[in-house]
Amino acid sequence: EISKAVSKVGKGWPAPVRALFEGILPFRKTPANVLVRAEEYSPIGVVNTAVNAYQAAKGINGKTAADVINSFSKTATGTSLFALGAMLAKAGLARGKEDDEEQEAFDKLQGKQDFSVVLPDGSSYTIDWLSPAAVPFFMGVAFSDALSDGDITVGEFLKALDALTEPMVEMSMLQGVNDALDQIRY
Predict the structure, then answer these.
(1) How far apart are CA 135 and CA 78, in angstroms?
(2) Residue 186 CB contacts under 8 Å (≥ 6 apart), including other chains
(3) pTM for the model
(4) Residues 6+ apart with CB under 8 A from 55
(5) What are the pLDDT tens digits along the chain (186 aa)?
């Protein structure tokens, strides 16, 4: 349903606006599907599991215990990937995106890649082609990076929650929208 709604955005608008929108986000259904799957396979998917459990208990929308188990399995898989990403980031074997633009440029000159797995020899490999499974993994990396200084204050926790959305945007086709918003903001 989300894919259908997103694909209708821009229909019936004047041609220049439609052309601009097509340039920013040429494929609308694919990013919507990736985002929905990434949400299902993440710790956030616990909401889906709870809704499915409620609907199955009340007999709403034809939900069954099998739907609840399926939803729980996806959430458990995503949560495990989230935890693995956080652990590997803490061990220095996974990296997210650098906050400092100068440091990020320097790292790129050295061949370091954003959202990548880092081998012990220092070489890095992106696994964004594993999307949507890579999204919860790198959400864990981003969460670990945001809390890396050890002091967990309310501000740090909120910053970490904000960092969770970055891998989803960076690793999907929504990067074009993000780039356009950055340009407008600039």
Answers:
(1) 9
(2) none
(3) 0.69
(4) 61, 63, 67
(5) 655 666 666 567 777 776 766 666 656 666 667 777 777 887 888 888 999 899 999 988 889 999 999 999 999 998 999 899 999 999 989 888 777 778 878 888 887 887 788 888 888 888 777 767 788 888 888 888 877 766 667 776 676 666 666 666 665 555 666 666 666 766
Rounded Cα distance, 177 and 9, in Å = 14
Under a CB-based contact definition with an 8 Å cutoff, are residues 137 and 84 in contact? yes
- Quickly list H helices, the chain: 2-8, 15-24, 29-40, 46-58, 65-90, 101-109, 134-146, 154-170, 175-185
Structure tokens at 37: 């799957």
